[in-house]
Specification:
The chain is α/β, with parallel strands linked by helices and 297 residues long. It contains ten helices and ten strands. It has one domain: Divalent-metal-dependent TIM barrel enzymes (TIM Barrel, Alpha-Beta Barrel).
Length: 297
């Protein structure tokens, strides 16, 4: 999940604010949008796949659900609680939910003890609702460094996440803390290396606190994706995809072999969701369907 969400056709960065405003605009034209005609259902192999909502904000959510279900998706990713019932009505799940939607959601994370009351409170309120709507995961952030050492951040994150872990375990919902790159998209973000995040998850020691491993971000920061996934399989609760460079389609315009990555994930016995979070440069649903096929291993 990005604060900077890919780029428009003219090269300008797409931000989370752009995505939210575009979603509102799309709702206004939903009544006149042409219906999407689902094709025959395709199974998605050993992995449960989903699609991040913001990447397809021009498509009304019910239509995205129907089209996604027809191509083999099991869920829609990164939704606030208002949208959770809509997804369930269409036979899918919200594979990753927001406990809150804030402009400072990414930089304001668990690495600062001053944030703990806010973050824990948001998650405490969202957990029972997530359980009610069958939402398996809620997203959280490590936060921006702002001068903190890794040791200070680790202590703070472990303390804060241990506060929320008992509630997550009680409701059967996993808190997934996202790894992001600080090289291109999120300057100063502290959770920018797998080893850093995994050490925190291990110290918290809860089956309901895991990493959200964004393949796009970690390819930029450290590469070595398949070996890292195998080594840290027990620490990872969710995946995001995206072509490198640019966070676009999972095709031959980018540098990763996503079929091999998907196979490596499946071979670990992973039972969570692999969510496609790329900005299509072509017809959105066709690009999404191609990505589902690539990861159907």
């Amino acid at each position: 999940m990005d604060g900077r969400m890919g780029r428009w056709a003219d090269g300008r960065s797409i931000t989370r604010r752009d995505a939210i405003l575009s979603t509102v605009a799309a709702a206004g034209i939903a009544a006149i949008a042409p219906p999407i005609r689902p094709t025959a259902h395709r199974p998605s192999g050993r992995l449960k796949q989903s699609a991040s909502r913001w990447c397809y904000r021009s498509i009304p959510l019910p239509d995205l659900c129907e089209a996604g279900k027809a191509m083999g998706l099991a869920g829609i990713d990164l939704l606030t609680s208002d949208d959770w019932p809509i997804v369930r009505q269409h036979g899918l799940v919200c594979s990753m939910g927001y406990a809150a939607r804030r402009d400072d959601f990414i930089p304001r994370g668990f690495n600062d003890p001053a944030n703990h009351d806010l973050l824990v409170g948001e998650l405490e309120r969202a957990l029972p609702l997530a359980q009610q709507h069958g939402v398996p995961n809620l997203i959280a952030m490590f936060g921006n460094r702002q001068g903190r050492s890794d040791a200070q951040a680790t202590d703070a994150c472990v303390t804060g996440l241990k506060r929320i872990a008992p509630s997550a375990e009680r409701y059967g919902v996993t808190i997934c803390v996202e790894l992001l790159n600080s090289k291109v998209d999120h300057k100063d973000y502290q959770g920018d290396r797998t080893a850093f995040g995994a050490s925190i998850i291990a110290a918290v020691g809860s089956p309901r606190v895991k990493l959200l491993y964004d393949i796009y971000h970690m390819q930029i920061m450290e590469g070595d994706v398949i070996r890292t996934i195998r080594e840290h399989a027990s620490h990872i609760g969710h995946f995001h995809t995206g072509g490198v460079p640019g966070r676009h389609e999972l095709d031959d315009t980018q540098e990763l072999n996503y079929r091999a990555v998907a196979r490596a994930i499946a071979d670990t016995g992973f039972e969570g969701y692999v969510a496609h979070e790329f900005v299509p440069t072509r017809e959105p649903l066709r690009s999404l369907k191609e990505a589902v096929e690539v990861c159907s291993v």
